[in-house]
Amino acid sequence: MIATARAYARADGYVRLLVTRGDGAMGVDPTRCPSPRIVCIACEIELYPEEKLRAGIDMVTVSVRRPPADVLDPRVKSLNYLNSVMAKREARLRGADEALILNMAGMVAEAAVANVFAFRRGALLTPPATDGALEGITRATVLELASGLGIPARAETLSRMDLISADEVFLTGAGARVVGVRSLDGIAIGARAPGPVTEKVAAEFAAFTRRDGPVFLD
Description:
With about 220 residues, the protein is an alpha/beta fold. The chain contains six helices and eleven strands. The longest helix is centred in the last third of the chain and has 17 residues, at about 195-210. It starts with a helix and ends in a 6-residue tail after the last helix.
């Protein structure tokens, strides 16, 4: 991965690793493909326009639901993005930037391709994996960095109303990084977006990646 990033030769970019079953017979039997194949992609990525990053994005709650863990465990990072594609498409058709996906119990799972955080009552909260959230690397990093900043942070079940009544809401992801949310279903969240806690976490995350990340450029 580091060799690919160095060959890409950019100070900023997105790297994705794909692990496939490799060459073998057609079908869904993985035992017939004995040698996995790994593909590393380095590229630019822009999930939201720059002006949206400055002003905060708009979300809508979509009709698509996150399948329960006994159907498809959210902790498995796979290329089966159909659920997220359908959610994102619905959000865009409704004029929003991002989709809020609920689980079958009506609780917050995540956004189409990002984890959801809410700052309310002095604590930073994010849905647990048991509610349908991917245990993302950026999510885990933000939880750790928030604690270091003196902000209580934990995984907790959240409802749509918890987000609407929060002081701040933001999304995290490898491509998204830390993105403020200014509205949900047409209702403004907090006094402004991104809010002060979002800005503080985003700045600390940016500093962390520059300070503790591997050296990709010689």
